[in-house]
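Can anyone check this?
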Amino acid sequence: MTCRDYKDFMMGYLDNELDDAQRRAFEAHLASCSDCRKEIEEFTKLKQITDNVTLVEPEDRLWQQYWGGLYNRIERGIGWMVFSVAGILLLIYGGFTAIETVIRDPTVSTLLKVGLLALLAGLAILFVSVVRERIYFWSRDRYKEVRR
């Protein structure tokens, strides 16, 4: 057997999971192979360190702070979204009302009315273009199924 074949025995050896024949063959190999002996010594040190590691449960106070902070962030996020949507709706309504007033006013020059309508048409085209592009890239996103 080669060193590569014995690598599979290392963890079993450290965990006392090898039968007597495997253990004797592995120990005989360790006696003749300094590389494997060095590696098993490193694994032994690592196993001693990991055997002494214990799981510490956080205190209830820490869990309450965590969940309180999480709910607080969610509430603020929802609040900002509602505020933003309401602001956008009010701006759109106010904008259309102002534009309607300007267009219906006979004292405003035709050039200003045409410029205002061109500005609105340009904004509408840009908006549709951006939304179309977002939908296009979202539908072809290779990573949308990847969980973060």
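Reply from J.R.: I decoded it. Residues 3-51 form one domain.
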